Protein 1
Amino acid sequence: MHCALYDANRCRSCQWLEKSYPQQIDDKQSLLQQLLADHPVAEWRAPVLSAQQAFRNKAKMVVSGSVERPVLGLLHADGEAVDLIDCPLYPASFRTVFAALIPFIARAGLTPYHVARRRGELKFVLLTESTRGELMLRFVLRSEQKLTQLQAALPWLQAELPQLKVITANIQPVPMAILEGKEEIFLTAQHALAEQLNDVPLSIRPQSFFQTNAPVAAQLYQTAREWVRALPVESMWDLFCGVGGFGLHCATPQMRLTGIEISAEAIACAQQSAQAMGLHQVNFAALDSTQFATGNDSAPQLVLVNPPRRGIGETLCQWLSEMAPPWILYSSCNARSMAEDIARLPDYAVQRVQLFDMFPHTAHYEVLTLLERKS
Ligand SMILES: C[S@@+](CC[C@H](N)C(=O)[O-])C[C@H]1O[C@@H](n2cnc3c(N)ncnc32)[C@H](O)[C@@H]1O
Ligand code: SF4
């Protein structure tokens, strides 16, 4: 893929851009094989590929420059602002949104925040698009000072961009490079963006994780569903469940499913989806996954885990070793921490592994691994 910003040395976020796409996949697969070298793998499935551009459903833009000429993109450590509106990872529809946002920022008088001077109000704009083309837009502000101005100017933006369904102001008062604060103020009646992957209705709310590459995420969830349904599983947990994508794909009306996730916003999304699907044997709760597990003295037949980059860690691995669920399905965005966790589960054999290329042009990828208790 060609990126003019990369060539001009303005943005180097895609470290592997100079490798051909087939080479990127070969390198990821061999790195994964090296990481699992100590654990015999019964079956390697072929990697699932991504589109090479326009695959990101999310943009996190730092706002800099002046109120009349805002720059949306990133800020180098030396203070240089880089306009990322033309980043080829975004769908073409984002350009229309950015083109309307620039005059809107001036109309609403949202002065970009200046990091060194600690002045100004607008820190970031966060944009998410569903596969049906509807949008969620969040303005990350230093304070509530410009909120009334923002609200007064909003009808113009909504008339320009009728696909904007959810708009919020997030208040982030800390003068550090933190993306978002705790306080979220909804500026639209609609609070969640409707999404559908395969036949499963999902929703996206502020402050809840959602996969950034929807077509590859859909294949990941579908694969998890096929692997689980091929097993005689009547009860499962989905730990670190986010908005419930894995569990809701795997569940059948007969299966007992418990989904655990730390974000209450994400759990509200998962509960809404379960209701829409007519699933009654399902329970989603906002809790710490390890505390939830260790508070139980037995495990379901299958435990699915999809932790953040740090992995599931020693305590949860020890609990799994003791409670001995017949199967563990591990979806990871960091194969290194996953390999460390697998080493802590010596009673499990690696049945099947498949790489999902969620993050082309970088060294990152998602991997789905089925572990089976040794008899
Ligand atoms: C990689 S995301 C996976 C989300 C979800 N499975 C999906 O497919 O979108 C990891 C999730 O773990 C959640 N999380 C982080 N720490 C947690 C904890 N201690 N207990 C439960 N969930 C946690 C995050 O909020 C995030 O939603
Ligand atoms: S993130 Fe976008 S602008 Fe930056 S190098 Fe990658 S493709 Fe280019």
Protein 2
Amino acid sequence: MGDVGSEASVRYKLKNDFSHGSTSSLLQSSRNFEDYGVSSSSPSRMRRRTSTLTLGLGLVTPTHNGRIFTSVRTLTTSPRCLNAITSGPGSVTPSPIDYSPPSSSASFKSLGIEASIVAALRRAFPNVKRPTEVQDKLIKELIGGRDILLKDDTGSGKSFGLVLGLLTKPRMVIEDEDSNGEQKLKRVTTSLFIVPHRDLAYQLHHWIERIVSELEPSPPLNSIVQVLVRGEAKPQTQLIQELKDTPPHILICTPQAFLDMHKTEEGREALQLDTLSTVVVDEVDYLVPTAARKDPNKSFRKAYEKAVKKIMMHPGPTREILNEIYKRRIEMRQHPYDPDEEGEEKGRWNSTEEWRNDMEAEEEIPQLVLSSATLRVHLKNYLFEESGWLNGYNLAKIVAKNGVFRVSQQTAANPVDEMEYDYETLDEPAEVPVNDEQRKRWNAAQKRGNILHSILVVSDTGVTNVEGAAIEQAASEVREAEGETKEAEEASEESDEDPKEYYHEKYDSTESPFNPISMEAIASAFAVDVPSVGLLVIPSSAPLQRAVYELRTMGVNAHGLDLLKERRGKDYLLQNADVRRANPTLLVATLATTRGLDLPTLTHVFVLGVPEGPSVTGRTVDAYLHIAGRVGRFGRSGRVISVVEEHESAKMVRVLDTLRKKPVQFEQII
Ligand SMILES: Nc1ncnc2c1ncn2[C@@H]1O[C@H](COP(=O)(O)OP(=O)(O)OP(=O)(O)O)[C@@H](O)[C@H]1O
């Protein structure tokens, strides 16, 4: 780890701003980091009015007090360029939302979405016009009631499609006794939506809130959706009472919060698992970790056995929940129908399949939907062979890779295929197009989004682009093509947090766990390239507040990602993707809390270190894919900048290699 006050320097140059020859006044003076639009009290408006701005881009030297621009170079610039610099022009501008996502020829209505919901959807999300391809396949199956295994690219609309399908599902009603002992009909929760972290829970809640508020008449929101996550301000007793009084149509929860409630009798009564009709597990590969099978003839076998043992010792809350909800299925799997067995049921069924599907209907076992952008072979094998949660006789597998879909219907006549490949390899075979139609989709998928992947390597002597990184022309073309974007009001950028919150004395007196040069490289790259919102993903075990603190001491408008924060949080979920902010924000999150997030204004993701490192496994590649998948969604542009130390750079290149991506130079680093 580099010394805080080391000689290390990071060389930056202004991008194409000076290469066009449209320069005007020669500006010369010193300017600190805040001048690049990274301070929460950015004077950028004032700067924009003047053409005699002082500039200090050039040699950037990290210092321990966070003022990293200590050396000044004379630069020639124009007012247009100044405007671009102060608002963080970047190699990627936020894209307007009127792109054309790969859509199906069906309409939401023809897929079975209720007319009132379609109308509300149009008002709430005017950009959502037609279902995407995955939504076409998913919504039909979701409404049909079959179990579903779902895999498609990040940002293809899986979670959004799940929300629409669940909203349309018929409301479950049971007969209940009121306080006078009279029978009456009572609404119960229809669907349970399990997600890995609370920000994703709030994002889904927010989507539903927007649609529900456009319904005419609009029902009370808590009768349609409620969220159960840890860290809620309300005490558990109040949450239980609310669930009992008004069971929501959809309950969105994190697994741990669900188990906390399920532990008590009162909580179990409120959750009413036996009346559920659908259970969705989003990001299932994250929530149900499994170990990659290793070739028994190779020496990894011991490592595999150790990994399995570890998982079995801590199976995780999602496994526990699914074991509870699907205990009848597990029993059926363990004791399948035996026509020779004595008993009154003898001879009632002709086959195991017949028996199984009859029992499923009789016992009203809820539909199970498992979804992720990454479903590795070992997870699929675990689900089909070991878990017992899925009905292998009535399952839809909707799996897409590079825009090519493989949809297989598992029915009684065509039960689930067993293990697909024997052992995990880092590169799973790519789906290849086999006909013209597929080739068309495949090509469209290749064009979808324009994500640039860069790797910055930090050493004691500075920061460089990884060896072999290509010079990317596309970046400036994208910038030119997209033209001007709207400016956000400075007012909305006022901090709603007290920055002092992070100024803990202990941070100044304890050694930082972060490499200061890495942090400064991130701060600088953010300052010169992010127009609106960036996201920094740090390892799951890294201290988030400390990272925010350190970035703030460098003048970066950094915030821990928290969608719960009323105004600020919801702001990030809005569709104002064409907004460039006067004072860009860097959101900081850990690896554990980024899956599934959809922040339309996001253009840049910074990754600190090799995700799920130090070694490169399938888990590492998947983690990178999910992190990178926060940008470039639905055809937008995006940039992923990994900041790694020297000993990690080959590993990071390998991750990109596996994903068949080539690192491109981050232009600002000379
Ligand atoms: N049919 C549609 N037309 C246009 N935009 C859509 C459509 N469906 C979803 N979107 C938008 O696409 C974005 C991504 O959707 P979503 O989060 O559901 O993708 P995802 O496949 O679940 O991604 P991830 O795998 O990263 O969780 C959201 O902003 C959503 O509003």
